[in-house]
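Question: Now follow the chain.
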Amino acid sequence: MDYSRYHSLAITRRGTAGGVLDIQMRAPNGKLPTAGHEGHRELAEIWRDVSADDSVRCAVLRGEGMGFSGGGDLALVEQMATDDAVRLRVWKEARDLVYNLVNCDKPIVSAMHGPAVGAGLVAGLLADISIAARSAKIVDGHTRLGVAAGDHAAIVWPLLCGMAKAKYHLLLCEPVSGEEAERIGLVSLAVEDAELLPRAYEVADRLAAGSQSAIRFTKYALNNWLRQAGPTFDASLALEFMGFAGPDVREGVASLRERRAPRFP
């Protein structure tokens, strides 16, 4: 498999015979990885390649710089609000990101540090084993932007942490620390910041060394819980992208650019 075509993702092999694929979301500004046109598309596509690559037994997803992921690039969001073709393309990518993760037959481990927002958070929480630094800051910021929480929230948050907690954090965009995320069941593990990558790699090595048929079949069966929620996810994603054509998202973007509270009509 030729991974050199990916530019927003730094992809290396580690472990015995390169069986663990290390996928790092790049932060070209040195701060946080953000999902622009290229980054959003590549984060959706990479899981097809992981699934098709017979040499890969497990994948680790992590972020570069000050955090795991910084959400969508505001320039892309503005284009989605004004250009129907861009909005339609990104909707398809957002749909593929979730379903490609769910259907990838290899186990995926996420290692989340600092802020975890947007498309990166989709992959982080849909990973088979999600590990967060205790100080990580998990935020689903959709309603703060003025659109419905659609890109992964409806399919997985209620299943992980229950409906009451899901509604509290999704409706209010209330941050969740890594420590609190473990307590409510939103992530698999929370560890000290310095232990994050070593623990993620340890888990990935154990998965890579295990029975591949047993692990992959178990993942497939368990993910039927997510597949059953497919209609709920499809509806939430459609409602999110309907919001990108409405007035609230313009105020949401303006408030983020101006670093102020939004004043929705």
